[in-house]
């Protein structure tokens, strides 16, 4: 997680420009692990029953059993830290852009149906309510927003069957990169009597085991207790190697890797299109000052990539290069994209781009610092939106 408590100074707007509207997309805050708790538990339970654990494996399994009983009932849920993240992000908006809250302020907010996302939205909105007595909020959580908020849902009317899958060549490449990068045999032998037992006796794969173990270890820092309680399991070099192996698939899933065969990046055109369309309508009406969207990394990461924020949308020729371009830690729990709109008395509109609450760049000419003309923004991105939507109409499905 990034230091969400910090408030980074922003470049002031050019003289005469004042903020009047914010378009926001936020990932849910810190959460418990999802399926990894049970995956790891089932692997060790089966290995224990078959007598396949080393002394280190037995010691960890004993520790993990009590931990598992404590955390598994809350799997996937937002933690107290996750709530605090969104409360503070909302407070930062209030502190940084007080002009938006002069007089009555209207907020339109939507989220996916995931409980952790709904609770993130609730934390954000309740924070704003505590700061502004005359704020008006309209909030909703529904799958009807799937086409631009969570395209992978079956309720997305534009979903093409198998469009989220990768081609065989891409899957082979990511598997080979994992085997080359992650010392999974050495890690496996710490806990099990033989490196081959994962597939031969336990019915799982090295990548599934290592990724579950890694997730459980790092996710302790999302919790309100037991931070770092499993830091003794993996060395720093092993943690970095696993992260690289996982990041390759993350980039394949969410960013611009040639040959991936997935349309995930193109589906983010619906998100970007909705951002532009709703901004145009809100600017014209003047009725809404904040438009907030809350979702998952699968929604915000491709959005960052299609916008090419900070160069994160560049194509990569290798997974090592991909990790340098768009490392997974750029999409932490609580990640956000904020487009802050400014206007002068002549009606000229600029927008400032914030990624994770920090100034970010776009591949168009800036007017001043991280400020871009709204018309330049639309001129650059509307053709990209149209092209991706056309690609989805005539997909090459793998």
Would you write up a description of this structure?
- By secondary structure, the chain is α/β, with parallel strands linked by helices.
- It has two domains: 18-31 and 78-161 and 262-393, Phosphoglycerate mutase-like (Rossmann fold), CATH 3.40.50.1240; 36-75 and 166-254, no CATH class.
- It has 14 helices and eight strands.
- Strands 1, 2, 3, 4, 5, 6, 7 and 8 form an eight-stranded mixed β-sheet that branches.
- A hairpin with a 5-residue loop joins β5 and β6 (349-355).
- α10 (236-254) packs across α13.
- The relative contact order is 0.18.
- The model has no long low-confidence stretch (mean pLDDT 94).
Count of DSSP E strands?
Answer: 8
Share in helix: 40-55%
Structural class: alpha/beta
Anisotropy-based shape:
globular
CATH class of the largest domain: Alpha Beta
CATH superfamily label of the largest domain: Phosphoglycerate mutase-like
Number of spatially distinct domains: 2
The helix/strand order is EHHHEHEHHHHHHHEHHEEEEH
- The fraction of residues assigned to DSSP E strands is 5-15%
Terminal Cα separation, in Å? Answer: 34 Å
Mean pLDDT: 94
Residue stretches low in confidence (pLDDT < 50, at least 5 long) are none
Which CATH architecture of the largest domain is right? 3-Layer(aba) Sandwich
How many strands, what sense, and barrel or not for the largest sheet? 8 strands, mixed
CATH topology of the largest domain: Rossmann fold
The number of distinct helices, counting runs of at least 4 residues, comes to 14
Rg over alpha carbons: 22 Å
């Amino acid at each position: 997680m990034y230091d969400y408590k910090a408030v980074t100074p922003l470049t002031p707007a050019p003289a005469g420009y004042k903020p009047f509207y914010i378009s926001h997309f936020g990932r849910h805050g810190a959460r418990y692990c999802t399926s990894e708790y049970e995956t790891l538990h089932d692997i060790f339970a089966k290995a224990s029953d078959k007598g396949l654990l080393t002394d280190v494996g037995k010691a960890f399994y004993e520790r993990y059993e009590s931990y598992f009983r404590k955390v598994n009932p809350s799997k996937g849920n937002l933690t107290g830290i996750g709530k605090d993240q969104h409360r503070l992000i909302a407070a930062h908006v209030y502190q940084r852009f007080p002009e938006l809250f002069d007089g009555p302020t209207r907020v339109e907010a939507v989220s996916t149906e995931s409980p952790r996302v709904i609770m993130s939205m609730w934390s954000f909105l309740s924070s704003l309510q505590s700061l502004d007595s005359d704020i008006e909020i309209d909030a909703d959580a529904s799958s009807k927003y799937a086409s631009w908020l969570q395209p992978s849902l079956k309720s997305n009317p534009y979903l093409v069957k198998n469009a989220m899958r990768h081609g065989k060549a891409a899957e082979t490449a990511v598997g080979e990169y994992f085997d080359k990068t992650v010392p999974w045999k050495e890690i496996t032998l710490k806990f099990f009597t033989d490196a081959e037992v994962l597939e031969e006796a336990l019915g799982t794969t090295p990548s599934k085991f290592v990724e579950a173990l890694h997730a459980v270890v790092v996710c302790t820092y999302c919790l309100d207790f037991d931070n770092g309680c499993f830091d003794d399991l993996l060395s720093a070099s092993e943690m970095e190697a696993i992260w690289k192996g996982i990041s390759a698939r993350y980039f394949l899933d969410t960013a611009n890797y040639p040959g991936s065969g997935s349309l995930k990046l193109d589906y983010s055109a619906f998100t970007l299109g909705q951002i532009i369309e709703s901004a145009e309508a809100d600017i014209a009406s003047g009725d809404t000052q904040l438009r907030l969207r809350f979702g998952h990394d699968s929604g915000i990461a491709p959005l960052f990539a299609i916008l090419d924020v900070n160069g994160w949308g560049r194509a990569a020729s290798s997974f090592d290069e991909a990790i340098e371009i768009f490392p997974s830690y750029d999409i932490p729990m609580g990640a956000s994209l904020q487009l802050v709109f400014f206007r002068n008395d002549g009606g000229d509109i600029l927008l400032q781009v914030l990624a994770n609450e920090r100034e970010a760049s776009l591949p168009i000419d800036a007017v001043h610092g991280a400020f871009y003309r709204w018309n330049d923004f639309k001129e650059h991105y509307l053709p990209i939106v149209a092209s991706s939507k056309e690609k989805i109409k005539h997909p090459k499905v793998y």
